[in-house]
Amino acid sequence: MTRVTLKDVAAKAGVSYQTVSKVLNNRAQVAPETEERIWAAVRELNYRPNVSARNLRKQASNLIGYAWHYTPDDFMHPVLDAFVHSVANAAEREGFHLLTFLATGEPPRPDVYQELFFRNQVAGFVLADTVTDDPRVKILMERDIPFVTFGRANDSWDFCWIDVDGRAGLRDAVKHLLGKGHRRIAFVTWPEGSQSGSYREQGYRDALQSRDIVPRDEWIIRGENAAELGRRAVRCLLALPREQRPTAIACVSDLVAIGAINAATAAGIVVGQDLAITGFDDIPLARYTQPPLTTVRQPIQEVGPEVVKLLLKQIRGDSAGQQQIILEPELIVRESG
Fold first, then answer.
1. Is there a cis peptide before residue 146, judged by omega within 30 degrees of 0?
2. Would 297 disulfide with which of 20, 230, 322, 330, CB 3.0-4.6 Å?
3. CB 295 within 8 A of CB 278
4. How many Cα atoms sit within 13 Å of 43 on the Cβ side?
């Protein structure tokens, strides 16, 4: 097939090829309808920049973009840190390098990704920490830009993603608690809209439903991924009447669980005996809490290589093969629950 050029797009949109070039590189001030006409032509003609030719000039063909999120001092992302490390290692084995860039807003503005790609600063993107109907995913799909996500965004969207089965992981953790005789089990999780949080909540509800248990609204507490959420949750749950008070707490992450353990211990509760607490992730600190944390281990070291493999297939124009991959987590039983 003849390669579609900037001039083809320009002819289709009824503008000069210089205008098309400037719009694709976010350097043109044109009317909104003109810009939309250009992007419509790009999509209709399936125009892709000549990456090879540009890379000979700019030497950028071996860069993969990853948005680095700012987090306050009391927030941590140990899982994402481990994920980025595994992606960087896997990419370097293939001759690629990770280009991290600051992203502002929640989630980051999608046009940042578009600008980096069409300026040929990166060959594709790795995304993480996705939300429901993530606008970054939507615009990358529309612009036909190579990308892979760690996490899902919308079950009806067809794009490349890899995820850990959080639903199965939380289900296993809660079934473990049920097996130890607990029936009043709380769930401390992230705000609504988090894809990972949603799947983990489904697993929590699945396990309780298997024993015909309907969780009370006050047993489910939401907040940002910080130890403070766990501390706040314990204080709220201990304030409930004794007959409604949970005897176990399943936490959406280890960081939240560590906060819950600290708050329970400060209140004179013996964790693992008076109150069971479980986490999710199996971060290195989990085995050193007092008592050691029962949690769900994510196979993070497997995720990075799979993400890079799928992305490079797109960049090189190969068939992506299996586009959606779910990896199984593992329940790690320790003394906290």
1. no
2. 330
3. yes
4. 11
DSSP string, 298-324: --HHHHHHHHHHHHHHHHTT----S-E
Task: Give the amino acid at 192.
Answer: E
Cβ-based neighbour number of residue 330 at 10 Å = 12
| Residues in CB range of 33: below 8 A, 6 or more apart | none
| Residue the block writes with tokens 């996705």 | 130
- Among residues 138, 87, 145, the alpha carbon closest in space to that of 110 is found at 138
Q: What is the residue whose two structure tokens read 């899982």?
A: 79
DSSP for 154-177 reads: -TT----EEEE-HHHHHHHHHHHH
Q: Which helix (H) or strand (E) holds 127?
A: strand 124-128
pLDDT for the residue numbered 182: 98
Q: State mean pLDDT over 178-193.
A: 96
> Tokens in use for 138?
């939507």
Looking at residue 97, its amino acid is H
pLDDT digits (tens, 9 = 90+) for 121-142: 899 999 998 888 988 899 899 8
